Amino acid sequence: MEQNYNKLRLFIGSCFALLVTALTFAMRAKIEEIFGPVENGGVFGLNKEVIGWAFSPAFWGFTIAMVLGGFIIDIVKTRTLVWSAFFLHLVGSIVFILADSKETLFVANVFIGLGNGTVEAAFNPLIATIYPKNKTKMLNRFHVWFPGGIVIGSLLAYLLMDSLEMNWQIYAGLLFIPLAIYGLIFLGQKIPETERFTSGVSYGGMLKAIGAPVTIIVSMTLMILLATNVISFPVGWMYLALIGLVFAASIIEAVFVMKEKVIFPIIFTFMLLTSSTELVTNQWVNALLGGAGVSPMLILAMISGIMAVGRFFAGSLVHRINPVGVLLLSSTFSAIGIYMLSMVNSPAMTIVGAIFFAIGITYFWPTMLGFTSEYIPRSGALGLSLLGGAGFVSASMFMPLMGRIMEENNTDVALQSMGVLPLILIVGFSILFISYRKKKPEVLQQD
Questions:
Q1: Considering only Cβ atoms within 10 Å of each terminal Cβ, which end of the chain, N or C, has fewer?
Q2: What's residue 3's pLDDT?
Q3: Quick one: CA torsion of 152, 273, 375, 332, rounded to 10 degrees?
Q4: N- to C-terminal Cα separation, the chain
């Protein structure tokens, strides 16, 4: 296929779009204390569970946009999603700065979540398309800018709000800088269509490669309804029972209805756990590590810095031990880090625990996407979008739950509860590693 687009410019623009997404995560982690209880220095007096509710649209809005984007990207074209992400981010950033209650904070996160999801829906398949021979490597390098953006946002929070005591709206207004840059970079650019589309894989072929499209879409809809409190679910860790039910039902659909391999339903289920391990813990870092004797925002910056460096150099690691081996190691380090953080009581050991945790979560998100793009390429943009959507809808369920656990118990109990997720993943990825350690990626032929 003839290349008639500026690959480097598209990649750089994609990175700036993801930088906006990352900054919103860093800002929420800091602004959580501004909206928190007055006795803890907050301004708006919201408890942690309410803040978790107000933040949750950033996750389920992401899910809606990403899944919808995966279904329609080849119909409306990649360019449309790129510009939709820009305008959703623009509106969300404006409302975010004006937020003065749980309702306006909720609305801001709806637009921001939809914008973030559209970024992933558009740019993950774009990266896979323009770098067909180095998908996992370049997806990891693209996703450098998620932790990289959190490093930038965390350090700016420490400088502007903690050191210089500036108004939080000034800090939030920094979102407009990378937003304007990525809009200008994409202005007038030729944007290629997805690899699945240009390879001639049919829409039906893409759905078949998903293995269990009905179960997956129904389950994600149910999770969104739970996250938005439209329906209720028994209190506690019954979410794990729901994930187990989704896993069983999707396997049944793949084997007996679609007559297809079960690998995508397995990866989909694992994504529900890997993303919550990473995202929920990082979003609550201010509350979880507030008494550790080290600035939580500096800890978040350190974690994100390790992630950024690790993702940039992920290519050689992935080629040495394959994507599933990387994911198995990630689960192990994540579990060690979380349990260390729940048991230590000194700044030095908190830093050590955070380093283990950071190494663990570094490769989760991009390597899950890279594995899918390489080993299940017929799933196309929809497969990548369903994974990303699964990750964020799972986090949107666990966010309020973590807030409730901290309210009713303490941060150590909350961390130990979250540590159950990577323990499950260690078992799952061990089994998957045995099956995939010698398999080669599938290559689609371009028309």
A1: C
A2: 66
A3: 80
A4: 6
- 445 assigned to some structural domain: no
C-alpha distance from residue 190 to each of 15, 52, 186 (Å): 17, 40, 8
Rounded to whole angstroms, the Cα distance separating 296 from 294 reads 6
**How deeply is 144 buried, as exposed, middle or buried, from its count of CB atoms within 10 A (0-12, 13-18, 19+)?**
buried
Cβ within 8 Å of residue 143, ≥6 positions away: 18, 311, 365, 366, 369
pLDDT in tens, 48-82: 778 878 888 887 888 889 889 998 998 899 999 99
Whether 245 and 238 have beta carbons less than 8 Å apart is answered as no
234 exposure class (CB count in 10 Å sphere: 0-12, 13-18, 19+)? exposed
Q: Which two tokens stand for residue 183?
A: 């809009």
Query: Would you list the DSSP string of 98-160?
Result: H--SHHHHHHHHHHHHHHHHHHHHHHHHHHHHH-TTSHHHHHHHHTTHHHHHHHHHHHHIIII
Question: What are the backbone angles phi and psi of residue 258, rounded to the nearest 5°?
Answer: -85, -15
Contact 59, 113 (CB under 8 A): yes
Is residue 1 in some structural domain? no
Tell me the range of 173-182, 188-197, 337-346 where mean pLDDT is highest: 173-182
Task: Answer yes or no: is 443 within a domain.
Answer: no
pLDDT tier at 179, thresholds 50, 70, 90 = very high
How far out from the chain centre does Cα 340 lie? 23
| Nearest in space to 235 (alpha carbons), one of 111, 417, 96 | 417
Average pLDDT, the chain: 88
Q: Could you list the residue range(s) of the whole structural domain that residue 365 is in?
A: 7-436
In a domain, 2, yes or no: no
